[in-house]
Amino acid sequence: MTLDLTPDELLSTTRAVRKRLDLDRPVPRRLIEECVDLATQAPTGRNRQRWHFIVVTEPRLRRKVGDIFRRALAAAEGHPLNEHDIRRMNHAPRSTQGVFDGLRHLTDNIHRVPAFVIPAIEGRTDHASAAVQSGTWGSILPATWSFMLAARARGLGTTWTTAQGPLERELAATLGVPYNEVMLAAFIPLAYTIGTDFKPAPRISRDEVLHWEGW
0.85 exceeded by the pTM? Predict the structure, then answer.
């Protein structure tokens, strides 16, 4: 069964879900397969279809992968924030605090999340030019977002994380992924949501992001 959402509602209410993941309800394999089927209808550079989706549901493996998630978060180094980043992050009162509260909750409970989805793509972009990177990432990001939209339509919650980054090689080895040939693009917790009443997020003004005929 899918939620009764218009296309605009689906696009504007597919949120990063961290605190409202139902950690006690398994996600049926059938629903994940449906989401992957829809994901692979996304655009792909030169129709190469190099995408892959690694799904982890087995409890012991989830614990191992969850441990990598925690250690990778602790090892992550973000780019320094500038004044514009900070202003935009705090455009809505308490929004940044809410994000970090949610991340702490997710980290504390990562071992209880019923499924992990790790999108991957053949071909590494380490030290590649911007042109090569854009073609590769442009062939996995749309498919992954389609997966997340399909999940939302089925009452499932997701959040895009790049927690695999600092320990990508270890995660690849744990999952049997050939690291030198395949890049792990993201780490997405997946679960039913507690309630389905998500709302559009407060964002900065359209005038700040929309440019006509140039910058």
Answer: yes
